[in-house]
Amino acid sequence: MSTQDATAAPPAAGSENYLNCSHGFRSWFFTLDHKRIGVMYLASILSFFLLGGILALLIRTELLTPTRTLMSADDYNKVFTLHGAIMIFLFIIPGIPAALGNFVLPLMLGAKDVALPRLNLASYHLYLVGALIAVLSIVQGGVDAGWTFYAPYSTTTNTAVVTLTFGVFVLGFSSVFTGLNFIVTMHKMRPAGMGWFDMPLMLWALYATSIIQVLATPILGITMVLLIVERVMGIGIFDPALGGDPVLYQHFFWFYSHPAVYIMILPAMGIISEVVSVFSRKHIFGYRAIAYSSIAIAAFSFLVWGHHMFTSGQSELMNMIFSALTFSVSIPSAVKMFNWLSTMYKGSIRFDTPMIYALSFMFLFGIGGLTGLFLGSLATDVHLHDTYFVVAHFHYVMFGGTVIAFLAGLHYWWPKMFGRMYDEKWGRISAIVISVGFNITFFTQFVMGSQGMPRRYYAYVDKFEPYHVISSFGSYLMAAGFFMTAWYLVKSLYRGRPAPVNPWGGGSMEWQAASPPVVHNFTDEPVGGDPYDYANQAYDPALGGYVLRKTEVSDR
Amino acid sequence: MSTPHEGRDEHADPHLQHHFGSMAQQYDSGKFGMWLFLVTEVLLFGGLFCAYAVYRANHPEIFAYAHQFLDKTLGGLNTLVLIVSSLTMAMAVRCAQLGQQRRLKQMLAATLLCACVFLGVKGVEYEHKWKHGLLWGTRYVPQGETAAPAAAETTVETTVAAAVPADGGTTLPHAATGPEGLADRQQADHDGATHGGHGPMGPAPRNVHLFFGIYFVMTGLHGIHVLAGMVAIVWLLRRSAAGEFGPEYFAPVDFVGLYWHLVDLIWIFLFPLLYLIH
């Protein structure tokens, strides 16, 4: 393993890697390199995260008082619609798979690229086109139908529904192509010595995610087509005034959008599986159970959409079946949670920024998951339906789960992506600030939701004012944490310490590529083996990172 | 431990991309990707078949009545045309595999011709529906040239009410255009129309327009897929004119062929479901 020492040296100034191998707009925008496509996705989704976040702050500021604070009621409807649509379709769904997944998936397989690089680029271009079309709806005056676009309101409101839904339609193709590409890559590009159960768990999570992307997103596509046709041509299929069935729209929409929740959370769980093991310096506990539970969640995800329609006039039998199936999802989710906790048990835990985010994930996702049971049981759902309890629940899952895990993954792979270490102290501080701010924002929403504060309301009764004020100040704290994060991450690109090959002591193959990797990923063939075996690693203080012990490796 | 990139022949086929170890691996990846794409296509249409099933189960009388307005002869002709095109497409793939350049081009051209005939016949059918007002939603104004102007006004009223901002507020439809109102009006329209010359189709049920809505969306989306397939075949023709395909490299012909068969197959389901029901 003399090669290991060669690649272990920090990148000398001017050494060629995927970032500096070529320059200019075209060399990025038309690249087929999965790493550059991943970085472009990352830049795009973070821009839209900023936009969606600003909209969230506008919502929270408007709700500081029970009546008008900043904007009119109509503007408020448009702001929360855009906040939801941008965060869901432009940020969270492509967030982990298309940005981080694109970067790490071939590296974790020891491959040079994804199987279909041109499709990968097409997926990014479609994302960009779809995103721009969706944002165009703001110029046209916005949309006020809510991100779910429920008919018949969405087919009768005078706002730019067609533009936004057409953007969503295009984004759906982008998502399908990413998922399709990942599935093909994992089937056809695994190196000869790597079986399915030798893959890092991040790849199992991405595989399960991709299956949902491929199987669920076409339904969203046809739903958006029908909605557009309904609006433009008046086809009447969802319009009760024409004999159509608006609940059919809800079925179609949630047949995609519930599995889409797992498109968001499954890759997040994959990141946590990596981070928890690496920062506990201990082999992942229950590898197969975690791998199978990802697939189980993907399978269950298709069978629970009806729990969004408990109060929409579904038959009681269907309600009961969907309720029971909804409860079943908690089993594979809990399998993961307990395996992560068991991995940490008696590990030597290091509280670096990614691990702080991972612990925060477990706490927040635990609350988000358990409050889902309140909503999955029929009797309590009737009380809690369309209240802030629901808002708090899905923010705990989507933000406390997915976004926090995305931040864990971003910090975990940041040195690999850009070859620079960020400021660890500020990383930890802002991780804690974001988590605390999040809890202040959304825990109060559980309380006011259970007391009857309805979601999406512009004006509310005075007794909820203290809760809204606390919630809004929590959101400002969170925003401060995010600006801190943006500041030290950007600073690290210019002033950060050059990253070693393996700063955290990860065992999967991406930690054998240079930081940042060369254009074809590996200068020498990476060494395979158990991705969670840390016994053959030694910390080298001179490098500030881990290297493989030579004797152990030569046995393999 | 070895990876697929090892032992790569430096003098490999120029079509081999850098990240694959062999042409076989590249071909397998492409084919697997194509099959997954076809799965998404099936699901895309699956949504429409689902809508069809829901409406047919809830309103069988609409389907039993309205399908009589579709021309079984033209539909059957189109079915035949598409089946022939699938045959020529399959032969084109075979020709590419065997390196028969001239026959490859002939077969692709024959497939393209069939696609044109299909769309032409479809156009004739659409024009017929258009002339007789057998359209979707509010534009369903069957047969009556005399009834058309009056109905057209209400059409404008109901659709434009949704699209034009009144005062910046919301514009929900008035109660008068609710389910009963519209259905009654259409019933009245149609009762007048049945005397107009469509023959003994029986009394029209309510909301017949739903059938035509589903018909136009399903056949329209299928037509768009036929168009996309034609674009792909033209692309293949250009590449085969340059002699790019042969026993070593025929993947694009194979993949477009798979897509074409799926488009064909969807029509095989659409034809009986829309034209041949009782």
Would you kindly provide a written description of the structure presented here, covering whatever features stand out?
The complex is a heterodimer of chains A (556) and B (278). Chain A has 17 helices and four strands. Chain A is mostly helical and 556 residues long. In chain A, the strands form two sheets. In chain A, strands 1-2 form a two-stranded antiparallel sheet. In chain A, strands 3-4 form a two-stranded antiparallel ribbon. Chain A is globular and about 75 Å long. The longest helix of chain B has 36 residues. Chain B starts with 22 loop residues before the first helix and ends with a helix. The chains are: A mainly alpha (556), B mainly alpha (278). At the A-B interface, helix 6, helix 7 and helix 8 of A face helix 1, helix 5, helix 6 and helix 7 of B.
What's a concise summary of this model?
The complex is a heterodimer of chains A (556) and B (278). With 556 residues, chain A is an all-alpha fold.
Output the CATH homologous superfamily of chain A: Cytochrome c oxidase-like, subunit I domain
Element string of chain A (H = helix, E = strand): HHHHHHHHHHHHHHEHHEEEH
- Chains forming the largest contact: A-B, 62 and 64 residues
Oligomer: heterodimer
* Contiguous uncertain segments of 5+ residues of chain A: 1-13, 552-556
Determine the N-to-C terminus distance of chain A: 11 Å
Shape descriptor of chain A: globular
Helix content of chain A: 55-70%
Averaged pLDDT of chain A: 92
